[in-house]
Amino acid sequence: MHRLIVTEKFNAAVRIATILSDGKAKRSSVEGTTVFEFASGTDRVRIVGLRGHILNIDYPEALNSWERTDLRELVWAEPDKVITAGKIAAALRKLAEDADEVVIATDFDREGELIGVEALDIVRTVRPSVTVRRARFSALTKWDVERAFGDLAEVDFPLARSAESRQSIDLAWGAVLTRFLSIASRQLGRDFLSAGRVQSPTLALIVDREREITNFAPEDYWTLHAAFRKTVDGTPVEFEADHAHGPFWAHREAESARVRADVAAKGTVLEYLANEREERPPPPFNTTMFAAEANRLGFGAAQAMRIAEDLYQGGFISYPRTDNTVYPTTVNLRTVLEKLADSPFGAEARELASQERIVPSRGRTQTTDHPPIYPVAGATRAQIKREDHWRIYELVVRRFFATVAPNAVALTSEAKIDLGGETFVAEGFVLRSSGWRKYYPYWQVREARLPALAAGEDVDRVGPVAIKDDRTKPPARYSEGSLLQEMERLGLGTKSTRHDIIKKLYDRKFIEGKYPRPTTSGVAVIQALEDHAERITKPEMTAHLEEDMEEIARGVRTQQDVIRESQQMLSDVLEILEKNRQAIGQEIEAALRQQNYIGPCNVCKEGTLNVIRSRRGSRFLGCDRYPACRNTHPLPQTGIIESAEETCPECGAPMIRHTDRGRSTTFCVASDCPTVREMNLIGRCDKCGQGELSIRHSMRGKRFVGCSTYPACDNTYPLPQRGLIIPDKEPCKACGRPVIKVIMRGRPPWILCLNMECPAKNGKRKRAAASKAKPKKPRAPRKKRTKPEPIEADIAAG
DNA sequence: GCAAGGTC
What we know:
By secondary structure, the chain is of the alpha+beta class. The chain folds into 6 domains: 2-50 and 85-155, Rossmann fold (3-Layer(aba) Sandwich), CATH 3.40.50.140; 165-215 and 490-587, Orthogonal Bundle (Topoisomerase I, domain 2); 220-280 and 409-471, Topoisomerase I, domain 3, CATH 2.70.20; 287-406, Topoisomerase I, domain 4, CATH 1.10.290.10; 601-672, no CATH class; 675-779, no CATH class. It is built from 23 helices and 30 strands. Strands 2-3-4-1-7-8 form a 6-stranded mixed β-sheet, sandwiched between helices. Strands 9-10-13-12-11-14 form a 6-stranded antiparallel beta barrel. Strand 7 (101-105), helix 4 and strand 8 form a beta-alpha-beta unit. The structure holds one DNA strand.
């Protein structure tokens, strides 16, 4: 008998082939796809790995034109199946020719069932009579795989059909609402507006948070603070305490308490408690936590996942798409530590391996599909060359270390102190044993020293009792990390798609900034949907869909029934939308105009200046009376541009506010305005002596120093891409080139000669600079992606 | 050119 085994991904094919053939499987190529083959008794077995879904659904060509298609027709249209992985489909057809039995060995979940059936459908176009079985396993271990193949089951067609329904409902709602919004607001082509079951509720989360922030009414309050001193072994130790009342909402009350306390020169300890507290390590990484932690290190969620995918393909970390936060027993923790022994983390790995017992931490979710993300090989810098890849690898290694490290032990203490009849509270927190924190330095704790005290003891007050005025703050914006966690909590998207959804919201210009906030068009779209198609903006739509899918899978409802019901609902929604088409369109158009509006044109004085995107994707300011007025101004290519809503005091042109990586600068739009020249001026050109050196921006948004007489003089210097740049008056003593000061938050100013070859620079820095100066090389061989992402650096570099 | 879900 000839048996064909189909897996969901290439690596699963490799693994299963190895297990079932005891490593004897031979590799060959069929229609350009790798296939494994071995004999099992008198049977011949072939194994092929798919690439996830190999089919997709799409509407027939007749419905492709957005302008000409009646949306009421689209609601009820039946989509076609389209092959999206042609080479794999070709291989399947070829392999089907002499196959007697197909074994579906895709992932053990709803989408896996459908992916398997997709492959089966292709096989059956060639061999309609082929028999089919299903192997169900939840881990790619020898035991699990052998058990699954020793006990083959039947394909769960209702389960596959439930996944198909999900596809069809998502497409119908997505396509109808996307086209409606785009047509009503006349945003066709590149700048279309979109809606979907996952993206719209996610966008609504961000819009809601922004509304809370905007509507927040801060309240003033006051707090009281006192410092005390106790002499321990002849050394005075000072510590701080806060008034036990917490915030005072009336200044009068705070002030009278302050006056009462301030009278007393000594405090009396009312109570002192000290405790040793064990701090458990963080749980192993699932996808969401991993991406959230990477986000804290400055990576965009989608960027972090792409790097994790690379590291997985390179054999450095385990599968990065997992919900599991409990190591299965099949992961040998000591073996993992041994593998890391030859990496730069060797010393730490050996230290952890020397523990008598290793008890890993565990999270709340235990699934059986994949283990949590952990390192599967010790790597060296030579193997992982790119700095961002290395930082992600290190994060995964260190998280693994933390999960197998001992508890940290902290000494916590609290004292209540009476001062003039007012009670103050002092808290102490000192790490006694760093435990896992030693291996996972990303979470810093602030220590506070509090000497041991005894009830009844007196302590000296130091300095006056201070009153601090403060105001309540609005909730913080989401970070990509906290947004991922919220999406997970609400059941929006999956471990494999959440980061993509966020990226989509950026790409569609619905959100912007490192801490995503909605653009005016993002707000307008959510507003319109909330008013007329509320269902699509709520996470409940996903929850409801899940219930429907379950009913299809259980056989209590048919696929047709569920889809019809959904179509009817969509049809009702569309009817309401159509009735309000004009109003919705105008509302969104107005928001879009406002989004790009900067101010009145400083040249013709009649038109307005707006942010315009060139066909190549770069942006600039232009007058809306073009071609009558040809006034344009260049713009920084990265970050957020908005109107500063004021005019330049020097030249009267409108001002823009530019926010990049959390830093805002306001400047005049006119490139010839003296304030702009001043802002970017470095000094006289040291090469031609004629022009002026100033900070300029390349097409890709990178800044550098260039000469004003370019192209007559081609003098340029690279610049650090981050930090505030201030020119130094004196040229470099060693080489005579200009010198700048770079100011970065949390670091002392960095004084830098612009000349990369300056003899004053030591060899170490020279090498570092040289390696930084050639990022072009790794960019070239980057793997092709489904879609080009011209501005990914804008949002992801963070 | 639309969605969301797999995977590269």
